[in-house]
Amino acid sequence: MKDSIFVISGSSGSGKTSVLSMVNNIGDRIVTSTTRDKRDGEVDGIDYYFLDKDEFLSRDFVEYDTKYNNYYGTEVDEVSLKTSNGCAYVILTHQGYIDFKKCYGSRVVGIFIHTKKDDIVKMLKNRKEDNIDGRMLNYDYDLRTMVDYDYVVANSFGDMQTTIKEIERIVEIERAQ
User: Fold this and answer.
1) Is the pTM for the entire model greater than 0.70?
2) In total, how many domains does the chain have?
3) Where would a tag sit more exposed on the chain, N or C end, judged by fewer CB atoms within 10 A?
């Protein structure tokens, strides 16, 4: 579909953001909103829309959730803007994916990035994550949900190019339909 919304999910630390920053022809990135603090190098409006809690709760969202004591969500206006020219993509939790499916139906293509637990720990250590154990709490749940997605793509530590090529192949298939 030429106006597909690619929803990308996976466990925390699975490489979703890194992989997608290098995927070609997937469309515009739907920027989500959050109440968490900016990390070094992050830019408001590029990485996230960084909002305080009151401002966040006053917005209209397709989906939102709390994770690690912060709100995360995708605004209706942002989805409309980014899909007005065709395909777009967004990184979401499983529940966010389900909410998008309810709202946008067959336009939504779910891609789950599966990464082995040991590889995730390596990736989190590489980005100097200080709460690795907390981030790994949902790993088993995430694996159980991957059956809900249209595609599952493996991402192995040190072999990101294979993952990128597989997602680009999926995008080509979906755009051709």
Assistant:
1) yes
2) 1
3) C
